[in-house]
Amino acid sequence: IIVWTNEEGSRFAPAMISSGVYAGLFGVDYAWSREDGDGKTLGAELQRIGYAGDQPCGTHPLGALIEVHIEQGPILEREGKTIGVVLGGQGQRWFDVRVTGQDAHSGSTPMQGRRDALAAAAPMIAAVEALAHANPPDAVATVGSLAVAPNSRNTIPGQIDFTIDLRHPDDDVLKAMGRSLRQDLTAIAGERGVGVTIEEIWHNPPVAFDPSCIDAVRGAAVDLGFAHRDMVSGAGHDACMVARKVPTSMIFVPCAGGLSHNEAESATPEDLAAGCDVLLKAMMTMGSSPPR
Hints:
- The protein is α+β, with helices and mostly antiparallel strands.
- The two termini are 22 Å apart.
- The model has no long low-confidence stretch (mean pLDDT 95).
- 36% of the residues are buried.
């Protein structure tokens, strides 16, 4: 049983840092040096709470890994299925964007000639949403964090920082979305007379899970009589990182209304138990016939 540190990446970006270190995609020094919004590093915080450990990450061998999780989406519930047999995960690209205008008094500065960073960021955010709509049905794009400076009621905002999360199961499409993003935001900045910097802080390509692990999960669902379907994970998971080093698969169970990252997130005890039953049976299958 493994609990990986910092799967979400909400405090220390990027996501899935520790499983990425295990898989050899990140170096330990890189992971420890990640900073939160207050400038505190992941390594220092792990030391502070006594969780840094002394065993080198990656030296503990794994024969296979199976992760069980709520779907974090509405498909299983909508189709009346209990088990999602996860074939892999879609790719992700994360960007940090800074829009630079000019702080000025809101009352005495005429509208003509203003360099309002927030007014410029608004069509940029709309362009991010439009980018996903232009690549249906699988593309998703999200601006999840926005910081306004100086953040004063009577001051024209001079600087905006916001984040962008692009996802798609096809890495070629994902790369094309990244190119379009840069073109669109740069064009808007030029029209608005502001500066813009676009930094890609993370690219996590799509991943396919191990066929023998997938078969073990699907076979367990069949043997236990649970309605199931194959699916690709829309969310990132530690399994998607570990899969680059170890045979891996995932099991999804439904969540109410497809809600996740929300206080209303919930799953029934029966569905959770079903996921655990499939996990146990799949693990027993893998133990008796491990992947080569």
